Amino acid sequence: MQSNQMNRNLKQVKIENSQNSPHKRDYATADLEGAMTGEEGEALTVDIKNFRRPGEKAYTQRCRLFVGNLPTDITEQDFKKLFEKYGDPSEIFINRDRGFGFIRLETRTLAEIAKAELDGTMMRNRPLRIRFATHGAALTVRNLSPVVSNELLEQAFSQFGPVERAIVIVDDRGKPTGKGYVEFAAKPAARKALERCSDGAFLLTSSPHPVIVEPMEQFDDEDGLPEKLLQKNTQYHKEREQPPRFAQPGTFEFEYASRWKALDEMEKQQRDQVDRNIREAKEKLEAEMEAARHEHQLMLMRQDLMRRQEELRRLEEMRNQELQKRKQIEMRHEEERRRREEEMMRQREQQDEMRRRQEGYKPNYIDNMTCFP
């Protein structure tokens, strides 16, 4: 009960890096994913290395922060000291002339904490502006099959280079939207994937639906545009003369606001019509593809049947040839047997003839012998 209450309440947690840096700062957090232990009301010290999700890759583009409005005389040592409690960075870049820099931390969570804590921090009378850096090696992937997962998407695009993250976008019910994005570790891999997929037809499943790959549009949907960052120019003061309001019927504002709304409605209707046309075209193409697939399968079956018939015919010919050979062999054997029998008969006849001659000669010899006294 006490543990559940701790997870529901906000806690003060002291964060320190693995080198036990003396620079600590308290911040409120609602959940540390089981990292918090101890009695209620106590401030906990958490090793910064624990802020890493299972399977999360380290030092990716998603962990890269843009730091703006830097003092022009800032040193790399000052810049590193600013982020020292968030772990060891793998990249530091400073442009002193233009007053900005980049730093890459180990995990996304650490980068989020650093951004939340340091954004707006005064450094030599200048408020720092910290945002997540634009991911220059990210691609949007459309026309994904419903059976494509994050893992399959990453596996498919890994052939172009190391992939940091691959996500299939789903709706609020977990149903795939047919869209996703792939974040590469470097720009050359992203360019290679974009070129190969644009020139060829990249298929992720057995269905001949090629994925559509485009450069990913970058949006800042976390911080937006704060009032303090707006340029207070002539247009700003002109547009901000009037507060937010509803246009009153019969006025100049109402007339042109209505025309703008009508134009927007016309655009919406045209977009809906285009969407319907595209949907119908896709359904037609899907039906044609299924018919062609069926015809292709029939053709393959006919080809297989012809191949089997040809194979049977060839086997039949081979069997007939084998039977013919056997018959010829049997005929030769029979002829050889007949010749041997005839030869044996001739030999017996000759032997009988010789025996008869011998027997016929002996009596004559005896008779001749009896003529002498």
TrEMBL record:
Ranges of biased composition (kind: Polar residues): 1-21
Domain RRM: residue ranges: 63-135, 137-218
Gene3D superfamilies: 3.30.70.330, 6.10.250.1170
Region named Disordered: 1-25, 321-373
Gene Ontology molecular function: RNA binding
Pfam families: NOPS, RRM_1
Entry-linked InterPro entries: NOPS, Nucleotide-bd_a/b_plait_sf, PSP1_RRM1, PSP1_RRM2, RBD_domain_sf, RRM_dom
Source organism, top-level taxon: Eukaryota
UniProt GO cellular component terms: nuclear speck; paraspeckles
Biased composition (Basic and acidic residues): 321-360
Keywords from the UniProt entry: Coiled coil, Nucleus, Phosphoprotein, Repeat, RNA-binding
PANTHER family per record: RNA RECOGNITION MOTIF-CONTAINING
Family of this protein: Belongs to the PSPC family.
Name of this protein: Paraspeckle component 1
Protein source organism: Callorhinchus milii
